[in-house]
Write a structure and sequence with these properties.
219 residues; mainly alpha; 9 helices; elongated
Length: 219
């Protein structure tokens, strides 16, 4: 299954969570709209979870694509500068000892796969590809510099400039972090409310972004 197919399976969870929110509101006799009472604020975790799920689907997609494309980028001419830097940090050869340590990797039968696996183990596994700057740096590794400019070129309609896309994504990532790290509360403890539309808009934005990221890399 392709990275994009896996993404589509993952992003569907976001829409299911917001649909569940609507159903539970109706089951509790709360109607489809309106601010929740304190007794029903537990329902807010459904649209919140939908936002987290959307950004996680994006993260997983970008990770998969980068890992898949690094071996290809290593065989390109020229190799992307960002990837060369990453490999130089991964396998520093400054003296006899570091050369001896690096030799098994350099002598591997499938050196490109071996280098990619080491990069994944030492670096990629610890990077979160959600914030715009992280995604941009990840795509630089596989030779797609200025990825948001490339995406913007094939994204029609209002608010689709590179800066617009970065700004929109950064806003959703900020809210995701508030959910994950702050319990989605203000400093004074006040609960931040969320309508399902916000969560659905997030999922739709991420879906549109990933579809265009996929077109940039795979055509």
């Amino acid at each position: 299954m392709t990275a994009y197919a896996n993404f589509q399976n993952s992003i569907s969870a976001s829409h299911k969570l917001t649909a569940m929110y609507v159903e539970l509101r109706q089951a509790r006799g709360l109607g489809r709209r309106g601010r929740l009472t304190p007794q029903n604020e537990d329902l807010l975790w459904l649209p919140r979870s939908a936002v987290v799920a959307s950004l996680s689907a994006l993260d997983a997609y970008v990770h998969t694509v980068i890992i898949e494309r690094v071996p290809v980028a290593l065989q390109s001419n020229p190799i992307p500068n960002a990837l060369c830097e990453a490999m130089a940090n991964l396998i520093p050869i400054k003296n006899a000892g570091t050369f001896r340590d690096a030799l098994p990797t350099l002598a591997a039968h499938n050196i490109y796969s071996e280098l990619t696996e080491k990069l994944k183990e030492k670096t990629l596994s610890f990077v979160s590809y959600q914030a715009p700057e992280k995604i941009a740096s990840g795509y630089e590794l596989i030779g797609c510099a200025n990825i948001f400019d490339l995406v913007s070129e094939i994204w029609q309609g209002p608010r689709s400039s590179s800066d617009d896309l970065r700004r929109s994504l950064a806003g959703y990532v900020k809210r995701r972090n508030q959910i994950a790290h702050e319990g989605d509360r203000e400093l004074n403890g006040t609960v931040r409310h969320m309508q399902p539309k916000y969560a659905n808009d997030c999922a739709d934005f991420v879906s549109n972004l990933v579809s265009r990221l996929d077109r940039v890399v795979f055509g």
